[in-house]
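Students often ask why we bother predicting the structure of a whole assembly rather than each chain alone. The short answer is interfaces. A chain on its own may look different once its partners are present, and contacts between molecules only exist in the joint model. In this exercise we take two input lines together and write out one structure for the complete complex. Read the inputs first and try to guess which parts will touch.
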Amino acid sequence: MQNTRIDNQPTHVYKEYRLRIGQPLPFGATVTSHGVNFAIFSRFATSCTLVLYLKNEKDPFVEIPFPEEFRIGHVFTMIVFDLDYERIEYGFRMDGPNKPHMGHRFHPQNVLSDPYAKSIGGREIWGDVTNPEFDYQHRAQIIPEDYDWGNDRPPNIPMEDLVIYEMHVRGFTKNPNSNAKYGGTYAAIREKIPYFVELGINCIELLPIFEFDELEYVRRNPVTKERLMNYWGYSTIGFFAPKSGYAATGVYGMHCDELKTLVKELHRNGIEVILDVVYNHTAEGNEKGPAISFRGIDNKTYYMLDPDGRYLNFSGTGNTMNCNNPVVRNMVVDSLRYWAAEYHIDGFRFDLASILGRDQLGRPLANPPLLEMLAYDPILANCKLIAEAWDAGGMYQVGSFPAYGRWAEWNGKYRDSIRRFLKSDRGLAWEISERVQGSPDLYAGRGATASVNFITAHDGFTLYDLYAYNDKHNLQNGEDNRDGANDNYSWNCGVEGETDDEEINQLRRRLIKNALATLMMSKGVPMLLMGDEMGRTQFGNNNMYCHDNITNWLDWSLLKKNEDIFTFCKYCIQFRHQHPVLRGANHFQHRDMVGSGYPDISFHGTRAWQPDWSSYVLTMAFMLDGAHTVTYGHAPDDMIYMAFNMHWDSHIFQLPQLPANKNWHVFINTSPGVENIIHPPGAEILINPQDHIWVGGRSVVVLVGK
Amino acid sequence: MIDMMSFIRTAALLNNMDINIEKNGNVTIIELNGDLNANSTAKIQDQVLSATPPNSKVLLDMTNVKYMSSAGLRFLLLLSRQLGGQVGNIVLTGLREEVEDVMSITGFLDFFVTAEDRAEALKTLS
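Now the answer. The structure tokens for the assembled complex follow.
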């Protein structure tokens, strides 16, 4: 029958190019057996021209107008026969009204990138413009989508068992002392898999890897005069294309294979990959920004505009994606599906996710269709969905993000209240008791896995700086220190910045360890910031979005310098993995459900069984009953007791009595004089006496009852 | 660290491909000379595939391959599949460091066995 089909034959000829009407779906460029199918949406364009280039050629080799009859609805679609797709790049010219006050910004002189481009050329080498003389800079490319995944299966680690490591692809290994062969790349992350395994994390969360232009700024560092870059990359150019400048093989056009190989290898080692995705805005900025793609293709559809056609700015970057326009909504879903299916990505963290719940005029929706679609999408069914549950337009939804039983949140309240308590702010004992339980006050009905717990993230101080700086030091960002958060809840321990004072340095180390221990003992999903496991500093800068230099690249020599912090962190993570009592998906019920004689969680003060929630109190302790892990499918675990003494004086904590066959063993004690006490999980040391323990000022203790 | 850009610019100058095919017992030895890219692959594909029936053993001498594109890598994988798809039916020898790195980084090296030289390759194939 095949021979009788006639759709493998062209119906039109333009110059020497043979054409046929294409399939309107999928959007983008799709390789078919006899050519390439191009399909692009524009509601308001009057005509469209396909512009084809050879790679590394300034001028197109042909421009093919879509014949009138090749438009189906609002989609221009065409098959071009016999294209050597590996050697070409493509773009579109769109004609239509140029009436900004009506929302239209058509300029047919611009060649525009495809919103569905699977690869984008022009920045193959980080920080280098591949062809500066080209007018069309971010050039859509076509890649083979034939990767051999072998037997790869996403690890599908239960949310409650995750330990997330938030990291920057380039920053992780760009420092020469990483000893990676191709520093700063996807390939170099693969080289470091043994490091992840040793540290014990089982999920990496990558700062944006959708194609962006690190060279989009023209500002310079006012101190060093160095050019500032968009280092973080929260500025998407294409929602389907991985950043080629992060690949050692980007110059060969093999960045997609490189990234897939990284994911496959991580999976083989039981490590998941979450992408930090930015759907709330694009790199096109405000009215003065460049026309790269969307604004020239269909400005009014892709962006939220006010009635006069000006960009609404809920993202703080100049524009806002019109995420609840049905066409844009579909693009977001298509993009996420693509990453899940084609790259085997395990989950997504949505930057400024509250924007995804706004309507086309920016008003918050009660039942946002995009968030609902993602929650019920069949292809994303096993993907983790994590919201940064706020935006720059004033929406703050921590605890109230529309979840549909799926969505987790970056728990900003965990960060803030833990930071304040750990630096000895008063009046927080009760709130801390909620935070270490997975914040049932915020996530009642959603369970502890709705809470991604973190004390630090890329945005803000590092853990080291949290205890070395009272104030942000962002002058080098070139914004007169106005940028970055002012509420850091940090404490410099007496001296701003580096000091030779040994006592202060000891205190800082203790506070870092207190924080790491708190994070890993809390119910919910812990997220560790790259480098915090080895005391990384940003020299007091709490907004390092624009620095591509040694100050922002992970300094691997810290591993040796701060070996004690690394070991402490590693043991804390190991301890968490060994103790399911720390990791239940549901909140505690504060009662005995298994007949052990102990409630699943109990709170204590300096006297056992007598928590003190008074506003002046800086002490608190909790005990977890390991017998309760049988209620969620684990063998009975040990008892775990954690005491916080955030008072500057030491306190004696009376210990709850254990069942007759168990004794208290010390896992962690950060008290002054004994601050190096951390024992390998499983090899904790029996304490004597058993009925109380001395806890030094600003210290924590973790005991195991076994 | 290796400067990929200068490497690829050099490689772009060398864009011809010719091949020698010989037999050594039941092993087909194919020597590739030049860049392996979409163009050159298209030229040699028929010749190579017809010299390598399913389940035969192949030694690919890559000493003179300075650059391999995405299409080149896929051609090698296709060859491997034609031979039955088992790792070990093809042994690659003479891989330059950059070529081997690209194959490793993109995952293609997992499907092949490599050898230092022809003698070692023949030993591996026997």
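Check your guess against this: Chain A has three domains: 2-141, 156-410, 582-705.
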